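Tutorial, part two.
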Amino acid sequence: MMESAVFLDKDGTLIKDVPYNVDPARIVCYSDIFEPLRGLQKRGYKLIVISNQSGIARRYFTAEDLDVAFSALHELLRYEHIQLDGIYYCPHGDVMDEPQCSCRKPLPGMLYRAAKELHIDLKKSWMIGDILSDVGAGRAAGCRTILVDRSKEERKQERISDPKYTPDFIVDDFYGLAQLINSEKVDYERYSIK
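Running the prediction step on this input gives:
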């Protein structure tokens, strides 16, 4: 039986963005993520992190360093009674430098892989991220998409009007996000592009 998932970007979405950070001591979750993620988990959604990690290709850190950082994220979420069902990352650099890469967002390779390995119906799933590349990956995979635009800057990007990058919804934070995903009767106008 195919399941539904919420795919989540990591940096800038779940945790405060510290560029190329793998130091567990500097990993800080946004406080607004916990209750919505618990709610989605209770509704049966698999929670899966989908993350570009070009720091490996750039030799800023190793895959082993990244594993330590992901273990720290697992622990922070587990403390809040949230269990991740998977973490997928792209270790490659820019697509121009890695033409064989099919996983770096906005490409959908990580979502396809997760769907195959975890028996996920992408059409019943969501991709949530803080930049339009996250939205692009979700749309390319056939998911519904939410842009969490905490700075209110990403919604000003010119390519947001390109159908490949236009999110289904835009929110300022995670508050109300679980309701948005779970509800058939939601004030969609509140979450639409402005």
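The two ends are 38 Å apart (CA to CA). In part three we will examine how such features are distributed along the chain.
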